[in-house]
Design a protein that fits this description.
Layout lengths: L16 H16 L5 E8 L2 E12 L4 E2 L6 E4 L3 H13 L20 E5 L6 E4 L6 H5 L14 H8 L12 H9 L16 H13 L3 H13 L20 E3 L5 E3 L18 E3 L1 H12 L3 E2 L2 E2 L3 H7 L26 E3 L4 E3 L14 E5 L3 E6 L4 E6 L2 E2 L6 H11 L3
Parallel strand pairs: 7-17
Antiparallel strand pairs: 1-2, 1-16, 2-3, 4-9, 5-6, 7-8, 10-11, 12-13, 13-14, 14-15, 15-16
Helix pairs in contact: 1-10, 2-6, 2-7
């Protein structure tokens, strides 16, 4: 069975073993205090895994430990995979970043932009220009999420049954039509708002390729890269390796909560947050990006395409904190821009946690994350399964990893 393994001693990779011990001790305390069920962290340098720790439980009630082959719901870490799917089609000439969305999804032919009011009194105007494919990849299309509670358009999403981004029982095509019937928060290409855009991109991939999204992922990304457990659902043979999902309680503890309905192929194929994967799977995906689109002799993307994906595309070369409503105006977004499906560090002096210039990656709502730091030749991932209320572990994770780099 394919699973992640440590390949080299930390000091051989320019990492301080004592600093990595401090990292493990820090997160082990979270497990001991009942704030995390368990976790897996891997740190690779130059493509070789130099630190790998699996600690705690993947299922506390059953007493099942976290192991390197544990399966994780990676939620929004699906988005970079969807971005790569789109860029594969761009490289093949079947799609362009500057194509209008309505060329593939006619329901978006006449987008309207929020002008004022709320509820049934919302007023809109015709958009000045079309939504482009690049707007979806950069979350500058004007779409949103229902759960923000920060803009009148968010409320319209909730009224349309999109609390979980998909109307109950709908498939991807049906869901996209609901999105298309709602106004945009702003003129496409002018602001940044993290949104359901990757679901729209998933549908674009289906229309352009003629394949369901899960099949395209499997045939064009997972199999070529050797990601054997990655998918949008699990088969019975994988079920005992799936980590239980927990939610953070008001008191700072955790309790089991319902997760993605992964047992059996879902009706709704989410390009935004539907994936399950092992650490081995996602390490291979991240390594493909670090190596400029190639891994073990298999090339998915050209180096120029990966370079385009991993540079800032926000209007005015601004960072994330400059745009949107309260969900985005957080100190953690200082110095961080956004590329095509990934965040990108554009000013390390302003970031809340240590980060090298050009570091890119993304996180999932169940407290999973990955990043690639090209300057330090690092590929890092952290896996656990807690939907947080106040829990914030990524700044300390980044600090502890960067303290371990000695050359």
């Amino acid at each position: 069975m394919a699973q992640l393994r440590q390949e080299v001693a930390p000091d051989e990779a320019g990492l301080d073993p004592k600093a990595l011990d401090r990292l493990d001790q820090y997160f082990a305390r979270y497990v001991d205090e009942g704030r995390l069920p368990g976790y897996l962290v891997s740190v690779a340098r130059g493509g070789r895994v130099a630190h790998l720790t699996a600690h705690g439980a993947r299922d506390r009630a059953a007493g099942l430990p976290v192991r390197p082959d544990t399966l994780w719901r990676i939620y929004s870490m699906t988005k970079p995979v969807t971005a790569v799917a789109v860029l594969l089609l761009v490289e093949e000439g079947r799609l362009s970043l500057d194509d209008p969305l309505d060329r593939y999804l006619p329901a978006f032919a006449n987008p309207r932009v929020y002008e004022g009011g709320s509820g049934t009194d919302v007023t809109t105007r015709p958009a000045e220009g079309p939504i482009l494919i690049r707007h979806l990849l950069t979350h500058t299309a004007g779409l949103t999420f229902a759960f923000y509670h920060s803009h009148p358009v968010d409320a319209l999403y909730r009224a349309a049954g999109l609390e979980s981004s998909v109307p109950p029982g709908a498939n991807l095509a049906e869901t996209i039509d609901v999105y298309a019937g709602l106004p945009l928060q702003f003129e496409p290409g002018t602001q940044w708002n993290y949104s359901v855009a990757s679901n729209v991109l998933g549908r674009v991939v289906e229309v352009v390729s003629g394949q369901p999204l899960d099949m395209f992922f499997a045939e064009r990304i997972f199999r070529p890269l050797g990601m054997p457990d990655a998918g949008l659902h699990i088969v019975p043979e994988q079920a005992d390796r799936l980590s239980e999902l927990y939610g953070e309680t008001e008191g700072g503890g955790i309790e089991p909560i319902p997760g993605l309905p992964l047992r059996g192929r879902p009706r709704f194929l989410s390009g935004s947050g539907g994936m399950v994967a092992t650490a081995y799977d996602y390490h291979r995906f991240a390594e493909m990006l670090r190596r400029g689109g190639e891994l073990d002799g298999v090339r998915l993307l050209r180096p120029e395409t990966v370079a385009l994906m991993t540079r800032n595309h926000l209007p005015g070369d601004a960072d994330l904190r400059a745009f949107g409503a309260s969900p985005h105006r957080e100190p953690g977004n200082d110095g961080v821009g956004f590329g095509l499906g990934v965040s990108v560090v554009i000013d390390p002096d302003r970031t809340a946690a240590p980060a090298g210039l050009g570091t890119y990656g993304w996180s999932g709502v169940a407290t999973t994350t990955f990043w690639v730091d090209p300057g330090r030749d690092l590929t890092v991932q952290f896996m656990t399964q807690v939907r947080p209320r106040t829990l914030k572990v990524f700044p300390e994770l980044k600090r502890l990893v960067h303290e371990a780099v000695v050359d």
